[in-house]
Specification:
This protein has 192 residues and is an alpha+beta fold. It has a single domain, classed as 4-Layer Sandwich (Phosphatase 2c, domain 1), CATH 3.60.40.10. The chain is 25% helix and 23% strand. It is built from four helices and eight strands. The protein has helices at residues 19-35, 42-53, 145-152, 158-168, and strands at 8-15, 64-72, 77-83, 88-91, 97-99, 118-121, 127-131, 179-183. A four-stranded antiparallel sheet has the order 1-2-3-6. It has a four-stranded antiparallel sheet with strand order 5-4-7-8, with helices on one face. Helix 1 runs antiparallel to helix 2 (42-53). The longest helix is centred in the N-terminal third of the chain and has 17 residues, at 19-35. It is globular.
Length: 192
Amino acid sequence: MLGPDGRLDLTVADVMGKGIAAALVMAVVRTALRSAPAALSPVERVRIAASSVALGSPDDAMFVTLFHARLEPATGVVRYVDAGHGHCAIRRASGTLTRLSLRSLPLGAWEDETFEEGETRLEPGDALLAYSDGVVEREERQLDLLDLEAILGDGSSAGDLVERLLAAAGPRLADDVTAVVLRRAPAPGGAG
């Protein structure tokens, strides 16, 4: 979602559960994030979303993994909260992947949740990748960053990187598959 100040908010989330109850939980989280004032930081917005999940019945035992980030396009600064999601990385212009290291517990996993906000920077030509577990989970194992580096290969545009991630999931999907890529444009006349 593009804010009035030019900053871009990105969220990828996955509710643990299926059916109508899970869909309602996701709708509540989405509504909480979208209705939170734009001036709030990513961590403040995630706290609001977490409090909306906590309003449900304690017997529901549903939680939500969530990656919520805000990109400032002019500087490339990305502030983010990884609430138990774990499927996010920076693809440097060189092609190497770097995992975002700061993580918190999922929404709804703990009564008095504490979320931490991390910060990184996208240099020109770098890309932020956020994807669901369906991209990397296989029957025999889970793909790691080196596997993803090979899959992404020499892909350069955001669209190309998304296509490669989705193709890697294969034709028989065991879970939902989501991939979002934000790529900072290379410097004029520069490589990457």
